[in-house]
């Protein structure tokens, strides 16, 4: 196959490209230029979109012996990922920009361009496994969790459709991170010991709240408001804008004094319209009913999913929770069989059947456990 290898400049994508070559594919390496001003994005080990990363990717391609190009998708990235991130926070929701990048950029814009240029698939360094499913499920391409559960990235890939999976390669899904680093060193790749990237690539200093306040400016729904106690309605303090908060947040509330019982307070609710942030005890964060919208299925749309292997993951590094999932067109109703805490609208709920990723939905509402 003719394969485009998306090379971020890190060790994972470099080894994935090398393995694609070793598997006999005709591979071309590409690096995505996602920033209109690369110097404004994170640098060093904290990022994945810098000039330094582009140079690392180019050097890795040279060692592997494949052609290498840079594709400028900065306008598309800004519109579909950065603007979406700002709009969601302004509406009081908590988005996952990495998941949105996979949906809109890496497996939509990149794959569309690759196919139009005559390539057959896109290979990435994500930790997930692709298998051909049984005839009872239509023999479709199925995505499963990676062997290395500590590095598994199937959650942020839960937005991929069957057509996208059919044109994707994840060469690292059967390996551990330690094995990948050893292989990179053996291949002479200088990125073998490069630290993993973390957090949000387009927030240069890691201060999400400060970045949002600066970028939104007059578009922000408010410029401050009250922090209110859920039980008493007492105003405990003020804040500089609701974009600085997310459901379940504990740190950075700056309300000056502890609760009467001495226990910490958590953000329970955010109202961008009134500027009110409501706080209270952790137990008030418990939810067991979730409504999802805009579902995306990796294969056929399911109707009802229940049984011992059905689980839902609600955060990129969160635990799997046993669940019952009912799908009715554009709405997904999730009944958690044990409560979850700090679930915010805007996050993704990814549904699993054992290790298989069924699909995902964006959380629209979460109801308190009874």
- Label the CATH architecture of the largest domain: 3-Layer(aba) Sandwich
> CATH superfamily membership of the largest domain, which one?
HUPs
Helix content: 10-25%
Secondary structure tally, helices: 7
Along the chain, the helix and strand elements come as EHEHEHHEEEHEHHEEEEEEEEEEE
Q: How confident is the prediction overall: mean pLDDT?
A: 90
What portion of the residues fall into strands of 2 or more residues? 25-35%
Strand order of the largest sheet: 12-16-15-14-17-18
Count up the domains: 3
Q: Nearest-angstrom radius of gyration? A: 22 Å
Low-confidence stretches: 40-47
Output the structural class. Answer: alpha/beta
CATH fold naming of the largest domain:
Rossmann fold
Q: Termini distance?
A: 54 Å
Characterization of the model:
Helices cover 23% and strands 30% of the residues. It is of the alpha/beta class and 370 residues long. The protein folds into 3 domains: 2-193, Rossmann fold (3-Layer(aba) Sandwich), CATH 3.40.50.620; 221-280, SH3 type barrels (Roll); 285-368, Elongation Factor Tu (Ef-tu), domain 3 (Beta Barrel). Helix 1 packs parallel to helix 2. The radius of gyration is 22 Å and the shape is globular. Residues 40-47 have low confidence and may be disordered.
């Amino acid at each position: 196959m003719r394969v485009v290898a998306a090379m971020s400049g890190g060790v994972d994508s470099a080894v994935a490209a090398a393995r694609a070559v070793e598997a006999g594919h005709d591979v071309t390496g590409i690096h995505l230029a996602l920033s209109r001003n690369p110097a404004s994005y994170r640098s060093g080990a904290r990022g994945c979109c810098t000039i330094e990363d582009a140079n690392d990717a180019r050097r890795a391609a040279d060692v592997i012996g494949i052609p290498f190009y840079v594709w400028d998708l900065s306008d598309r990235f800004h519109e579909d990922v950065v603007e979406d991130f700002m709009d969601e926070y302004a509406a009081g929701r908590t988005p996952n920009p990495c998941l949105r990048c996979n949906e809109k950029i890496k497996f939509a814009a990149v794959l569309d361009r690759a196919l139009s240029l005559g390539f057959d698939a896109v290979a990435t360094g994500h930790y997930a496994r692709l298998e051909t499913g049984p005839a009872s499920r239509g023999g479709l391409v199925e995505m499963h969790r990676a062997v290395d559960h500590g590095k598994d990235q199937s959650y942020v890939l839960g937005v991929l459709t069957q057509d996208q999976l059919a044109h994707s390669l994840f060469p690292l899904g059967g390996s551990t991170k330690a094995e990948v680093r050893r292989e990179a060193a053996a291949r002479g790749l200088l990125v073998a010991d490069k630290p993993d990237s973390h957090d949000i690539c387009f927030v240069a200093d890691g201060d999400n709240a400060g970045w949002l306040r600066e970028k939104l400016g007059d578009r922000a729904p408010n410029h401050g408001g009250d922090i209110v106690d859920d039980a008493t309605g007492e105003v405990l303090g003020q804040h500089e804008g609701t974009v600085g908060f997310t459901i379940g947040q504990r740190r950075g509330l700056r309300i000056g004094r502890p609760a009467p019982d001495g226990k910490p307070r958590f953000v329970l609710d955010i109202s961008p319209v009134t500027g009110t942030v409501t706080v209270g005890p952790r137990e008030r964060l418990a939810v067991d009913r979730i409504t999802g919208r805009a579902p995306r299925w990796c294969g056929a749309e399911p109707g009802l999913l229940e049984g011992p292997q059905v689980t839902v993951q609600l955060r990129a590094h969160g635990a799997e929770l046993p669940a019952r999932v009912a799908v009715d067109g554009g709405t997904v109703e999730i009944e958690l069989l044990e409560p979850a805490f700090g679930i915010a609208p805007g996050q993704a709920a990814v549904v699993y059947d054992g290790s298989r990723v069924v699909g995902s939905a964006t959380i629209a509402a979460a109801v308190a456990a009874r």
